[in-house]
Every structure is written in C-alpha cells, then in structure tokens.
Design brief:
This protein is mainly beta and 415 residues long. The chain has one domain: Porin, CATH 2.40.160. It is built from two helices and 21 strands.
Length: 415
Amino acid sequence: MSMSPSFHWFGGVLMVMGLLGLPAESRSQGAVGAGPLTATLTETEPTTGILSMGPVKLAPGITVSQIGLDSNVFHEAENPKEDFIMSAKPDIAIFTRLRFLQVSAYVGADLNYFKKYVDERSVGYAGRARVDFLLSRLFPFVAYGETRSRERPSSEIDTRANNVQTEKSGGLGFRLSGTSSMYVSANRVTTAFEEAFEEGVDLGQSLNRHGDDFNGGLRTALTPLTTLTLRGGYRQDLFTGDSTRNSDSRYVTAALSFAPQALFTGSATVGFQDSRFDDAEVKPFRGLTAAASIAYSVLELGRLNFGAVRSTEYSFDAADAYYISTLYTLSYTHRLFGAVDAQIQGGRTLADYGQREGTVPRRDTTDTVSGGVGYNLRNRTRVALSYEYSRRRSPELPEQNYEGRRVFLSWTYAF
C-alpha cells in the first residue's frame, strides 16, 4: 500500500472500510502510540462474538468480500478481460489482560481466486501483536506487525503487486488519571515490492523504502462518549533504490473518537503536515491532512456512513514524485422488512499531480458506485448481492482510463 511521506493514513483508511461493513480488525480503536499496522488492534476486551479460554478471549470470523464476475480484471482502456473471482479473509483477534500484562493480537489470511487468469491468484497473510506492561501508571509497550499481500497498492497502480510490509514499534505511556494518558513512541515501517511492474517501472526499485517515525501525544476523555487524541512527530523515509526520493516530515494531528453509544460513532482526524524532499526540484508539501469515518443511525431503520481521507502518496513514477490523494465515500443502508436491507454506496478518489517544478498540474479521478440487497441472520452473518460500477479518468493520460463492472455475492460472518 502506498504511504504518506510523513504520516501513514493506513489506519484512517481501515476505519473507513470498517464503517462500510468490512473486516472486524478495522472496527477497533488503536492504543496510544500505535504504529500504522498495529493501530487496528483493539485496546479493550472484546464483548461480542468471543470464545473464552480462561483469561484469553478469541474473536474469530470470516469475510468473503466477493464471489462473482469482474468485467475488467486488469483495468484496461481497451479490450477488457472478464473473469470469475473469489476473495476471502478468515481471521481471528486475540486479547488477554492479566495483572501486569495486556496482549492484543490479530492473525488473518487473504485468499484470492481467479478462474481463468491463474497468475492473479494469491495467498496472503496479516499478523500483528502488541504487548503492554502494566506497571502502575507507567506502561511500556512493544509491537510488531507484518502483512504479505498481492493487491493494487493505490488508485494509480493497476498491477496486483506482491508487497510485504513490516512494523516494529515501541514506546512508553503514562496514565495521568483514569481518563487521560500521555506517551512517546517510535516505529519503523518497511515496504518491499517483489517482482512487480507498472508501465514498465520496477515498483521495488521505485517504492521500496523504510520509514522511521518518532512521535508523542496525549489522549483524554472529553466526555464519557468522546475522546480527544493530540499527536505530533517527525518522520523520515529512506528509499533503497533511489536515494533522491528520500524525504523528512513533521506533522501534528488532533483526533476525536466517539463511543458506540454516541449519536455519531467513529472518528475524525485533522492535521498539518510539512514534508521536504532531497530532490530540490520536488515541491515541499505544507498543508492539511485528514481522515474521517462517521456513522449515524436514522430512525432505527437506516445507517448513514461517511468517510474521507486526504494525504500525500508516493507515485510509482519518480518523475511525478508524489501526489495529493483525496478520498470520499458515502453509503446508506436501509432496512426494508424483517432481516432484509438495501444499500447504496458511492465514492470518489482525486489524485492531484504536478508536484515537481516545471510539470503541468493534472487531476485524475476514480469513481465507484454500487448497490445491493442483503439478508441479516441471527448469528451476525450478512449475505449480500451487489452490483458495482467503477471508472477512472485521466485527462492527460487517456491510456490510463478504464471502466469496470462487478456482480458479486459477499458474506460476512462473526462467531
């Protein structure tokens, strides 16, 4: 997945996905000082869908995100290829809290099947864990995460790229009171593409890197249902294949999160980022960043979800250096009768290029709309039949345009 030069909005994207009904790991709020991969780990004991083994709580589940037809498997502008596809993610979350120790972990698989284009088949995994040492008010913590996937890393890359990401992180927290904590932390995230190419560009040569992030912050409960987190830090990204792409950044963020019992649920983050690049021809980025995922229940009959992410993303093309990515999503789910509901959803991604001196600014757009009906079972299973239409438009590079349609079944199950 393509990352911000200074601050990984991986967690923000996952929160958007979680509110739209995707895997359970994306619906949790991360602990203070968490890195981009371990930010999805829960910091509190799960209360639903759990199996108990003494003090250890297990929350298994599976998400079948699609079983159906994709009309444009490779996002081609001409002569698109169709195929029957299946994607599934079985997973399990693990949590235990002892007198002096708290452990939160997650393990999952990412399975993708293509009937005709067998080279697109893949088996990936995700594993992450965090250990907090509960020493009175002090709580040192260490964490590790690793994911291996074969998917499109960003909206500008059409190749399903083999990608391995790892996170090593740790820090020290201090409880100021029962509702407030402060912390300092550091993390290193490594991104490695393997045998992946986009328009003849070796993604490993262009995008492989490691990033070191040093940050600190404060989290406090403003009300019983609202929590504020303030964060500031410094980040440096070092590229292994092209040192001219190196960057360093400073950032500050403020985030509000809302409890499930609140009128609105989810979270909203706004920040300021100052990124500078070793290549003198690349323009610095100084501006606002944001991530929001908000849900609102409508008269107990419907649920409205809004998501947004604004960040900087490294481009696979070193000539473009980076682009400013803005994502909006909006969905509405309405109960029709009994356990049957209907859902409509729309989203737009804007990619603003022209961050190098002398280049002409351009904006690429990717739009997605979908609709479907679902059936909710008592065991927290939801089965849905959906239709999706997607389109990308690049006015300056028409060969990157594409349209695609999918008709698919999806199934979400939690014990």
